UniProtKB/TrEMBL annotation:
Taxonomic lineage: Bacteria, Pseudomonadati, Pseudomonadota, Gammaproteobacteria, Pseudomonadales
GO cellular component: cytosol
Transmembrane segments: none
Pfam families: Bac_luciferase
PANTHER family: LUCIFERASE-LIKE MONOOXYGENASE (PTHR30137), N-ACETYL-S-ALKYLCYSTEINE MONOOXYGENASE (PTHR30137:SF20)
The protein, known as: Luciferase
Family note: To bacterial alkanal monooxygenase alpha and beta chains.
Domain Luciferase-like: 17-303
GO molecular function annotation: oxidoreductase activity, acting on paired donors, with incorporation or reduction of molecular oxygen
Superkingdom of this protein's organism: Bacteria
């Protein structure tokens, strides 16, 4: 027995060589409009700090621009970095977005700092203390609903503006601990397969479903698996896009990141050191790449492994035209062969191997 798996987008607003951050943000708006026309469910934007190759550092502001330029697609954060901010202020931001764009706003949040150590200090150096993450989550949800935990010093407080609908909260994570937080609060759960592809995700998704408790936010569990994707017209082209992705990622997680997403020309000219090749091999499972039929098959495997309701793809490919073309290629492929969620262990039993 099966049902369709929906596709969504996580966008880092990549800044291509020769362009400025303003160009990247405008491209994000166009990408959102494009995937909305293709029937994608959500468009989430990221929060990264001191990362010049990605322009998105304030998801709420970019969400407002994207939501105003689209009509139906859900728009969200992937995600707001909760430890950096006041839970009340986040609740107010997303209540305001919900008031402006009813029933279209997702509040995805995570516990990572999203920055190097120095930038993390700059984001938080005026705080007298840091609160445990579960407490931050409880406060955030309390401010959204007005229902705080017993004994909370914020009892009776609710974020304004009050709205008839609520933003849909999702816990973003890459471990079983975050799955437990999502399950106990009755929230959606998004697993960052693009960070941790080592097999923990399907286990966390299963544990989340088993522990899920119905709350005011939802009466049923929702799992999203998120992964980097590169799609080419041909296998050689897809391999080049994969090369460019791995070159960007190798340096993005180093002390010397690129200030732009490497172009195909830059990637071709790069001479990989043994150390870089070792990093690339470790990161191999974070990307699904190939032609549209190959990527569709691998996304089906991913969906089957997670038993997922939804797959969220992140196109860290150089060039806006390439990213739009990837959506067109994948959309055409999935129109003829939609992804399916196989229930009760059904469906194809395929190796869990990603490119």
């Amino acid at each position: 027995m099966s049902k369709p798996v929906e596709l969504s987008i996580l966008d880092y607003s990549p800044v291509d060589e020769g362009l400025m951050p303003a160009d990247a943000l405008a491209a994000s708006v166009r990408l959102a409009q494009h995937v909305e026309a293709k029937g994608f469910k959500r468009f989430w934007v990221s929060e990264h700090h001191a990362a010049p190759a990605t322009a998105g550092n304030s998801p709420e502001i970019l969400m407002s621009r994207i939501a105003s330029a689209t009509r139906t697609i859900r728009v969200g954060s992937g995600g707001v970095l909760l430890p950096n901010y006041s839970s009340l202020k986040i609740a107010e931001n997303y209540q305001l977005l919900e008031a402006l764009f009813p029933e279209r706003i997702d509040l995805g949040f995570g516990r990572a700092p999203g920055a190097d150590r120095r930038t993390g200090i700059a984001l938080n150096d005026e705080k007298g203390k840091s609160l445990p993450y579960p407490r931050k989550v409880a406060d955030l949800l309390g401010f959204v609903t007005g229902n705080h935990a017993p004994g909370s010093s914020y009892e009776g407080m609710q974020a304004h503006p009050h709205t008839q609908s609520r933003p849909q909260p999702f816990v973003l994570g890459a471990s079983g601990a975050t799955a437990e937080i999502a399950a106990q609060a009755g929230l959606g759960f998004t697993f960052a397969h693009f960070i941790n592809p080592r097999g923990d995700g399907p286990i966390a998704a299963k544990a989340y479903r088993a522990a899920f408790q119905s709350t005011d936010f939802s009466d049923s569990p929702t799992v999203i698996a998120a992964v980097f994707v590169a799609v080419g017209d041909t296998e050689p082209q897809a391999e080049e896009f994969a090369d460019a992705f791995h070159l960007w990622l190798t340096y993005a997680e180093s002390a010397s990141p690129f200030d732009r997403v490497p172009s195909l020309a830059t990637t071709r000219a790069h001479h990989w050191s043994p150390e870089e090749l070792a990093i690339r091999e470790r990161n191999r499972g974070r990307l699904i790449s190939g032609t549209a039929p190959q990527v569709a098959l691998q996304l089906q495997r991913l969906a089957n492994d997670y038993g997922t309701d939804e797959v969220m793809i992140n196109l860290m490919m150089p060039g806006e035209a390439a990213r739009l073309n990837a959506i067109d290629l994948l959309g055409a492929e999935l129109k003829s062969t939609p992804l399916k969620q196989f229930e009760h262990g059904g469906g194809p039993k395929t190796a869990n191997v990603y490119q």
